[in-house]
């Protein structure tokens, strides 16, 4: 359905350019937009490679394991059943650690693995457990220590201070995570 809507909007827009005589302006705008999109993608690819390399260095240096050791007692307190399973907990820790460094594309496989592991211990297969919902909320509102994607976008957009976002990101994601976790803990008593 959405594809039909988009197709209709594009065709309608093209027809309007013919009727109003602004075809050349539209073609110029498409060309400029395509060029700037390609430039942004190339810049972001470079930044993504850099931050993935940094995460790889952090992993090999033991930094991610140190963070995992700090997170494990907190997660053992928060998760009550399926999230405490060793494989699920390992995937949860790696997912949250990757998200903390702002590399959500590296976190996604760990998030999927964590959900798969928790689903194995789910007694009602067509329904998410409280631990699964809690993990989903924690994943969505994960505390960002270094918001690499946003820094990369700001840098690619020629921001004068692309790292200015770090403190606001830490504060906003911390508040979001605390509110999300609190809401889950309150609502799991009733559902």
From TrEMBL:
Record's keyword terms, sorted: Membrane, Transmembrane, Transmembrane helix
Domain annotation Nucleoside transporter/FeoB GTPase Gate: ranges: 43-154
One Pfam family it belongs to: Gate
Domain of life: Bacteria
InterPro entries xref list: Gate_dom
Membrane-spanning intervals of the chain: 40-58, 133-153, 165-187
Keyword Transmembrane found: yes
Protein name listed in UniProt: Spore maturation protein
């Amino acid at each position: 359905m959405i594809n039909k809507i988009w197709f209709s909007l594009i065709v309608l827009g093209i027809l309007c350019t013919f009727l109003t005589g602004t075809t050349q302006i539209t073609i110029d705008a498409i060309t400029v937009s395509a060029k700037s999109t390609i430039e942004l993608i190339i810049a972001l690819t470079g930044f993504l490679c850099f931050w993935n390399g940094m995460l790889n260095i952090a992993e090999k240096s033991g930094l991610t394991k140190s963070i995992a050791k700090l997170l494990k007692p907190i997660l053992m307190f928060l998760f009550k059943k399926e999230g405490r399973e060793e494989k699920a907990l390992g995937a949860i820790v790696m997912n949250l650690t990757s998200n903390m460094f702002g590399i959500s594309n590296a976190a996604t496989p760990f998030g999927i693995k964590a959900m798969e592991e928790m689903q194995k211990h789910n007694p009602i297969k067509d329904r998410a457990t409280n631990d699964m919902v809690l993990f989903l909320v924690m994943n969505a509102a994960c505390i960002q220590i270094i918001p690499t994607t946003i820094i990369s976008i700001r840098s690619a957009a020629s921001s004068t201070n692309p790292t200015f976002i770090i403190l606001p990101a830490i504060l906003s994601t911390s508040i979001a995570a605390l509110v999300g976790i609190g809401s889950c803990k309150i609502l799991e008593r009733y559902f």
